[in-house]
């Protein structure tokens, strides 16, 4: 069983996100370890990018802070190496296609395998154009994680059928960011996904309260939280560790009620 599968093996998975290098590589490493200590089952690491089109203001600002701190792709690889010195928690990159192509697709996925990255999510890569990355991912044993959005109707089964690691279900139209209410018919999407694959399905975009997390976990195999964690980092900076721990602990305890 690989590490991503292990994240879902013990019940509902809590998946947390941060942007690498915000506010520094050392603090990103500390915060990932705090998330794990608080009960996170998997961590998504955002690779800073100048034009993160899927992100709302909170994560856009984190990208700007990380880039201002000179966090490039090689620095992000270094961060993973730092984490792997202390932890085996499943790690997944969230990146845009430009850094992958610039580094070289084959070289990028080979590096992911070498340092211990378990999966990669590329939100601006159309499903129909995933072949080149998919081949490199398979060759290196790295999961290329598919995203399904509310606009994916008619393509849900095709996208889910090619899914690996886990399926990322986007809860709402628009970009990332906390939301007071999630109105998408997630039951319908999840039914279609489960009709073609046994790969776990996790829901993200907008989830930020324990109540939302319990509701989502009652339907899905995992809950993804990004902007709420990044907000804590924006507020507390280099002193965010204990606050991240408390938030993740509360959220993990909440979704455990849905098991």
From TrEMBL:
Keywords: Amino-acid biosynthesis, Aromatic amino acid biosynthesis, Lyase, Tryptophan biosynthesis. It catalyses: (1S,2R)-1-C-(indol-3-yl)glycerol 3-phosphate + L-serine = D-glyceraldehyde 3-phosphate + L-tryptophan + H2O. GO terms for cellular component: cytosol. Transmembrane segments: none annotated. The active site is at residues 44, 55. It comes from the Bacteria. SUPFAM superfamilies: Ribulose-phoshate binding barrel (SSF51366). Pfam families: Trp_syntA. Pathway: Amino-acid biosynthesis; L-tryptophan biosynthesis; L-tryptophan from chorismate: step 5/5. Its EC number is 4.2.1.20. One of its GO terms (molecular function) is tryptophan synthase activity. InterPro entries: Aldolase_TIM, RibuloseP-bd_barrel, Trp_synthase_alpha_AS, Trp_synthase_suA. Tetramer of two alpha and two beta chains. PANTHER family: TRYPTOPHAN SYNTHASE ALPHA CHAIN, CHLOROPLASTIC (PTHR43406:SF1), TRYPTOPHAN SYNTHASE, ALPHA CHAIN (PTHR43406). The alpha subunit is responsible for the aldol cleavage of indoleglycerol phosphate to indole and glyceraldehyde 3-phosphate. This is Tryptophan synthase alpha chain. It comes from Anaeroglobus geminatus F0357.
